[in-house]
Amino acid sequence: MVVIAVSGTPCTGKSTLSKALSEAFGWEYININRLMQASGIPIKKDTMRACKTVDLGDLDSFVRFRLARCNNAVIDSHMSHLLNKRLVDLCIILGCDLALLKSRLEKRGYSPLKVKENLDSEIFQVCLTEAQRRGHDILYIRTDRAETSSLIRKIRRTLLSRNVPVREDKRTCP
Hints:
Layout (H helix, E strand, L loop, with lengths): L2 E6 L5 H12 L2 E4 H8 L3 E4 L4 E4 L1 H12 L5 E4 L13 E6 L2 H10 L4 H12 L2 H8 L4 E5 L5 H14 L13
Parallel strand pairs: 1-5, 1-6, 2-5, 6-7
Antiparallel strand pairs: 3-4
C-alpha cells in the first residue's frame, strides 16, 4: 500500500491536488475532515481560535482503520502532516503566494483574524516545520507556479525516484 498525505495552510489547493492525484493514480481519496465528522471521532471546538481540534492519537487510529480497507490512498487535510510517519509514504506540503492565498481565504468568508492567522502560518511555514518535526518524507510544492497536471507528473517522478511504486490501481476502499 502507498499513502500520500497532502497538507498545507487552508486554501493552498489541497483538495484540488488530492482529488487530481487520486484520479490520475486511480487511488482512494480520503478527506479526513469529512470522515471525522461522519465517524464520531471527538472533535472539540477551540472558541478562542475559532477552529476545531482533535486528539492526534484518535486521528491516527481512525486513519489506520480506514487505510486497512484500502490499497493505495491520497489523504487530504490540513492536519494530514500530523499523522504518524509510519502511516504515510510521502507527505506533500503545499505553499502559495500570499496575495493569492489572502484572496482565496477572503472569498471563503474567513474572518480578518482567521485570514491573518492563516497568512502567518504560511509565512512561517508551520505545516512544513511540523511535518519535518514528525519525521515525514516531504515534498514541498508551490501551487501558484504550475498547473495541476505538471504537479502530478512531478509527484509521480518523485515517488518513482524514492522507489515508491506508482501504478494505476482502480481498487478502492469499501
